[in-house]
Amino acid sequence: MQPVRLIGIGLACVLLAACDEKAVVLPPQQHVQAIRASSAEYQPRAEITGEVKARIQSNLSFRVSGRVIERFVDVSSPVHAGDILARLDDSEQRADVEVARAGLQSAQAIARQKALTFERYEALLHSRSISQATFDEADKDLRTAQASLEAAEVALGTAEDALSYTKLKADADGIITARDIEVGRVVSAAQPAFTLAHNGARDAVFNVFEAFFIEGQPLPGVDVAPVADRAPETRATVREVSPFIDTRTGTIRIKVALPDVAQWPLGTPVVGKFRSPPREGIVLPASAIASAKGEPAVWLVAPGSSSVSLRKIAVARYRDSDLIASGGIAPQDLIVTEGGKFLKEGQTVAWEDR
């Protein structure tokens, strides 16, 4: 009887141990706070810094090459149309003008001589004192002299134009914003010398990161204010969006037309508040976010059993105190917002609705 009793006691111990082990495996019920997911409208926005620039800018350059001997303006100098900005050494061009003028005088003298000869031969032809062939030769010489005269006039005009090109003049009223020449430097034709910002309409120019355009084109209205003083904020309008991406910076240039009341100085740093069209999503507090193998997720509470499961979500945008979920959950889902750090899959919770 004693061995049988010992076996029974052993079996009872095994059963008790199994029961104890099963009790350890089951996680205890945990108190959490949860909310019902609800859809909401949100509007992606971004604050981008930019700069005030003239709507029209021109790059000024000499039309002939030469050595710079005088420079009359510098960056930030106001100028008027026709003002001389710089001058090249024009000794070569002046010599060309003198040669062309001498050539014109010679052509004029020859043309006058040939005209007199033609008139005399024409009178002699009427009196039959010369042959038709002699008269035709005089006519040919006159036409040749007149053509040479016209060529000499064109040559003088070209030489005088080249002489005038040694003076670089402003093409409009404005302000010099860049200078690329110095006295004593040899420049070539069409080499940029100055950048002139024309007076008149101004733009705020921004380089916006490509990621912002994932949400679509920005809305036309942009709130713009100087960086140093946000108080005089003004509503401006998007005038131009570059069709190309700057591959060096990954940005897209946007030009915003400033109203006449916002006549901030050129180069003023400004901040623009850009907005994309409104979108639908589910707004969740930042405390609701969890991780499923490194991907964003939330704990879902089953309404009937109060058990939890980890659900991956798609996050459209992270904000200061919340986030926008665009997939993975639906309105009316019960989402754990607090107390979810130590939850396990399938664990039963006691939840409070926030």
From TrEMBL:
Give all residue intervals belonging to the Multidrug resistance protein MdtA-like alpha-helical hairpin domain: 98-166
Task: Using the record's annotation, list all stretches that form the Multidrug resistance protein MdtA-like barrel-sandwich hybrid domain.
Answer: 62-195
Q: Output a single Gene Ontology CC term carried by this record.
A: efflux pump complex
Q: Which InterPro entries match?
A: MdtA-like_BSH, MdtA-like_HH, RND_pump_MFP
Q: Name one GO molecular function term.
A: efflux transmembrane transporter activity
One family name in Pfam for this protein:
BSH_RND
Q: Which family does it belong to?
A: Belongs to the membrane fusion protein (MFP) (TC 8.A.1) family.
What PANTHER family is this protein classified in?
HLYD FAMILY SECRETION PROTEIN (PTHR30469:SF38), MULTIDRUG RESISTANCE PROTEIN MDTA (PTHR30469)
What NCBIfam families is this protein classified in? RND_mfp
Name the UniProt record assigns to this protein: RND family efflux transporter MFP subunit
Per the UniProt record, the source organism is: Phyllobacterium trifolii
